[in-house]
Amino acid sequence: MNKKSNIPNPLMPTYSRFDIAFDRGVGAYLFDAEGGKYLDFASGIAVTALGHSHPHLVETLKEQGEKLWHTSNLFQIPLQEKLAERLVAATFADNVFFTNSGVEAMECAIKLARKYHSSQGHPEKYRIISFKNAFHGRSLATIAASGKEKLTKGFGPMPDGFDQVPFIDLEALAAAITPETAAILLEPVQGEGGILPATGEDLQAIRNIADEHGLLLIFDEIQCGMGRAGKLFAHEWAGVTPDIMAVAKGIGGGFPVGACLARASVGESLTFGSHGTTYGGNPLAMALGNAVLDIMLEDGFFEHVQGVTKTLMAGLRSLQQKYPALITDVRGLGLMIGVECTVKTRPLIAKALELGLVLAPSGENIIRLLPPLIIDEGHITEALAKLDQLFSEIKT
User: Fold this and answer.
1) 243 carries an active-site annotation
2) Residue of 98, 131, 162, 220 marked active site
3) 96 DSSP β-pair partners
């Protein structure tokens, strides 16, 4: 008998959850235990990039699950080497460190920036400049990198080493550089900060500033990467490459996988014993990471994402014209879209659930659309109809 059965909920109260539990998912749809059907335009916050129960991922999970789940990094893991080789071949990077999550990938990136400068004889270079309203995770280091009071309040004192400037304020960025600065960190598209894409010119200017001052450039592509932007990684649109990049969310298709990618001279500064992980890169995770790449690297995959993006954005802008008192902006890159509203969005998202549409918030007044990358025109038509109904029922 549970002596503490009077406790209403044994979970720590860290989430304000909607009163719904999903039972299963197929493709772009989720179903509750009563059989209710929902079009999923949140993808578990950009995680289930290939939708739910993708046949190739399910078959891979079954096959690898019957063979080997975990051995630890004390031993060779061929699937880890295979996935690293494929990521290196498809990106700027020369080496990869696998993690279980985005925040661990960011921790690796932060440590790597410091370790690189230390290995070059400059241990005084440890500070990282980041941008206001960014979100890089919820560890102490990553909330310090964000600097948001919402994230840092009650957890002080914050780890030293992070300086924030306004998003894409190049003058403030240059002014913030000191002899202790090691790197510049940014999301090519701010996610939690309001779906704010940096332009190609912005990214090139930041790359130039980093090069001029001998700094590393770190991209956080945890949310905007893995096909979400219509290319494998968002920065590819700009033709600008980082020195270090953190990846997660869509890379496992729903299975916990993260990765820190780096160019050789940087990544090789993490020498034997300087970093590690127990679960990261285990055979089960790597099998699924490879399965995701099998699909994403197929001919035409990114062209499909780009095509449905155009259709969805056009439909959303039509809704903006129809409901100008409710929708003030539609912005984003690829299938990472923000609809800025004049009202708070949590009630809108709750109402959308009643209509059978799953959305995600970004801040207090932005609806975030992060549909699976495998959606088709029919899914878009259905989503736009539900959004039209949603906004038609809102009084301003």
Assistant:
1) no
2) 220
3) 261
Is 18 one of the annotated active-site residues of the chain?
no
| CA dihedral of 133, 137, 142, 143, whole degrees rounded to 10 | 60
Q: Are residues 130 and 262 in the same domain?
A: yes
Instruction: Give the count of beta carbons closer than 10 Å to the beta carbon of residue 203.
Output: 24
DSSP string across 64-98: HHTT-S---TTS--HHHHHHHHHHHHHSS-SEEEE
CATH code: domain of residue 255: 3.40.640.10
Range of the domain at 209: 68-296
Judged against a pLDDT cut of 70, whether residue 265 lies above it is answered with yes
**Other C-beta atoms lying within 10 Å of the C-beta of residue 21:** 8
In a domain, residue 157? The reply is yes
Q: What does the pLDDT look like over 353-363, one tens digit per residue? A: 999 999 999 98
Other residues' Cβ atoms within 10 Å of the Cβ of residue 185: 28
Number of domains in the chain: 2
Position 61 in a domain: no
Secondary element (H or E) of residue 338: strand 336-341
Q: How many secondary structure helices (H) and strands (E) does the chain include?
A: 13, 17
Residue 59 belongs to a domain: no
Asked if 250 and 113 sit in the same domain, the reply is: yes
Which one from 92, 97, 98, 135 is the annotated catalytic residue?
135
- Of 115, 125, 249, 386, the active-site residue reads 249
Whether 220 is a known active-site residue: answer yes
Give Cβ neighbours of residue 12 (< 8 Å, ≥ 6 apart): none
Q: Facing residues of 130 across strands?
A: 164
Q: How far is CA 203 from CA 33, 188, 199, 330, in A?
A: 46, 8, 6, 21
Q: Are residues 228 and 315 in the same domain?
A: no
pTM of the prediction?
0.95
Is the predicted pLDDT of residue 395 greater than 90, yes or no?
no
What is the per-residue pLDDT across 301-332, written as a single tens digit (0 to 9) for each?
A: 999 999 999 999 999 999 999 999 999 999 99
Q: Please report, for the domain that includes residue 353, its CATH number.
A: 3.90.1150.10
